[in-house]
Amino acid sequence: MMNQPLLPTIATIIHTIYRRKVILRLLFSGIVLFLATQIYLSTTTNTTAGARYRKSWKLEIDDLIVQCYTIVFQNLIDSGFLTGDSKTLAVGTQFLELTGALNESGVKYSKTTKRNDWLPYDNHTFDVEFCTHTSLDYSLNPSGFSSELSRTLKPDGYLIIHTESKDSYSLNSLLDLFDSFKLIRSREIDIRHWSIEGIHEIVLKKQNKILRRRRMIAGSCSVPAYKKSLIQDSEPLVFKEPLNPCISIKNNFENVKNMRYLPLMADISFKTQYVYIDVGAKSYGSSIGSWFKKLYPKQEKPFKIFAIEADKQFHEEYKSKKKITLLPYEPWVRNESLFFEINRVSNGPNEERGRGMGRVQSAQTSSSYMGDINKIQGFDFADWMKNSFGEKDFVVVKMDVDGTEFDLIKKMIENGAICLIDEMFLECHYDRKQRCSDGERSSRYQNGYEECMKLYSSLREKGVLVHQW
Fold this sequence. Notes:
Distance between the termini: 98 Å
Largest sheet: 6 strands, mixed
């Protein structure tokens, strides 16, 4: 009778030992993770512990790079942007060399890191921040990283950026990331090292207010000189109406070949996001798959793609395109029901096949329309643009909407959405000769070729690099 409780006691002991083993394993794993984190941080930031780790590992330092950056820091000291007492952060993959250069320059308190996404420091920590060409230029999120640099820099602190970008478009895009900073100096510098060539140096001073913000005034966009220059360098508009109206600009190989795409004329880096909007997309192969995916020069940027198409016959195809957002509506000037004409081509006396949507009319004015029509939902395209994207985004728009372009663009000019477009491919529909017959005009469109050219010209005047499509 005395031995009966023995079995439960043994089970309790085993259970206790097992629990302790689990706890010990978790504790051991936590210690290993902590040590690994400390070692990683010590090799990416300039700390006393980091120096000890680096010394024990005998990591090699390129003395020539140290010498190059010492010259850079000495120039910043001579210019009054950096002092020996400045709390300084240097960002770049060559963080060991940066540490050595700061020490050589007599900067007493400094930290270096190779991180270019977030910074593990408190707000308003540093007097001076320095970014090499390997930091912001190669950040996967330049907008987020620029916010981190601004957050950790003290008011009236200096931010020095080295970049490989040189054209005005990309440099202004970079400056737009720091809209609460004042530009102090911008210059080309010569760092005599094979891995650091062709560097542009920008010195910014942090302010307490937003300085860089473009605004739309009285229906017009503020167009900087560098954008005007790009538009002037683009291909000239074709003011003479094509002799063969059946061949649109986009179907003329020579015209497409001669198009001067914006990414071929400028570096499109330092944008918050990259967006392509196909307005009147039709099928995937109509332009997204056949042209934008294959031919448009994206500079390896991750574009978000929006297909705006109300015709239901194309919707099923887009369900299998995971990286494309379909907006199954008709772009319009208001959110309302619309009617559209069904285009048809006769294959014989008793057979017709649909060719997609044609002319769009508001439901409020279509009661007297007696053609072959269908009802769809329209949405305010200009308001959607204005609420979805910003001035720091890179936005490309292709528009082919069977004559509605005049209404849409008018609304976009009125609410300022047109100012958000960097590059546009617009097919303007006019009363061209019907069925390519001589002298006979189509009554389908109200505007002539001259009105189309006025539309193209006005868009370029507003700073939109528009191409005839």
